[in-house]
Amino acid sequence: MMTQIACHRGARLSAPENTFPAFEAALAQGGDVLEFDVRQTRDGVLYVMHDETVDRTTNGTGPIADMTSKEVDALDAGAWFDARFATTPVPRLDAFLDAFKSRAAFYIEVKWADCDAIAQIIHRLDIAAQCYTCSFSEQMHLDMLRAAPDVAQMVHWRRATPETLIDKFDATIVEFYACDDAKNDFTLENVRAAQAAGLATQVYSDAVSPALFAQIRDWGVGCLNTDHVSAFHAFRTSQ
Ligand code: G3P
Ligand code: CA
C-alpha cells in the first residue's frame, strides 16, 4: 500500500494557501488529497478559508462571517504571498470542488459553516465517496454526520478513542499528530490500536524527516497530511 498525501491547505509553501494555485501546485507535486478549510459569509455563501478573519490571507480585514459574498469575491487572496499571485480570489466551495473533483480526493475541515449547505454541494456534485470530513468543533462533526452520513468522518486521536468520540461521530479514520513535543501521539502502540479497531489512519506533521517518513511507511499509515508534498512524494516514489 502506498501512503497517500493530503496536501495541507494545498501546497501552501509554493502558493497562497487554500487557493486554486495552491491546489494546482499540490497535484503537480504528487498530492492525492486536497485538505482545506470551510467558512461562510453573513449571507450564507461557503468559502475555502482557514482563519476566522480575512486579515492574514487577503487584502481585507475582519471576520469572514461578518462579510457578504460580494465583499469576499472582491478580495485578493494571493498578493500577501507573492506579487505574482495578485488578484487570486478566495475560492467559493462549490466552484473549487467542481474544478478539482475529477483529479483529487477531498479532506474537508469544517471550521464553522452550515453543514446542510456543505452536504448539498457534495451531493449535487456526486462526490461523497471521495470526501472525508473533520472538525475541531464537536457541533460541526455532529452536524456533518447528520447532513451527510454517506461522507466518511475523521477524528483526531488526541481528542478521541475508539470507545468514545469515534463511536459518537461514526468515524472511520483517525489522525495522529507527529511532532517533537508533548502533543505527539504518533506512536506504534496508538497506530496498532487504531488499526486493530478497523480504522483508517492518517498522520499530520510539518516535519521533513526521513525517519518519520520511514515510520509512516513501515507502520502502514494510510495518509500523511503535510505542507511538504513534494518531499514526501519523492520519498515514497524512491522506495
Ligand atoms: O487535521 C488537522 C490539520 O489539517 C491541521 O489543520 O486547519 O489547524 O491547519 P489546521
Ligand atoms: Ca485545516
What is the compact description of this entry?
Helices cover 32% and strands 20% of the residues.
For the structure shown, list the relevant keywords.
8-stranded parallel β-barrel; TIM Barrel; globular; alpha/beta; binds calcium ion; 239 residues; binds SN-glycerol-3-phosphate
Give a description of the structure:
The longest helix has 11 residues, at 115-125. The relative contact order is 0.14. With 239 residues, the protein is an alpha/beta fold. 32% of the residues lie in helices and 20% in strands. Strands 1-2-4-5-6-7-8-9 form an 8-stranded parallel beta barrel, surrounded by 5 helices. The protein is globular, with a radius of gyration of 17 Å. The N and C termini lie close together (12 Å). It has helices at 20-28, 69-73, 93-100, 115-125, 138-147, 165-169, 188-196, 210-218, 229-238; strands at 4-8, 33-40, 46-48, 105-112, 131-134, 152-156, 173-177, 200-204, 223-226. Helix 3 (93-100) runs parallel beside helix 4 (115-125). The protein has one domain (4-238): TIM Barrel. InterPro entries: GP_PDE_dom, PLC-like_Pdiesterase_TIM-brl. This is Glycerophosphodiester phosphodiesterase. It comes from Celeribacter baekdonensis B30. Residues 3-236 form the GP-PDE domain. GO terms for molecular function: phosphoric diester hydrolase activity.
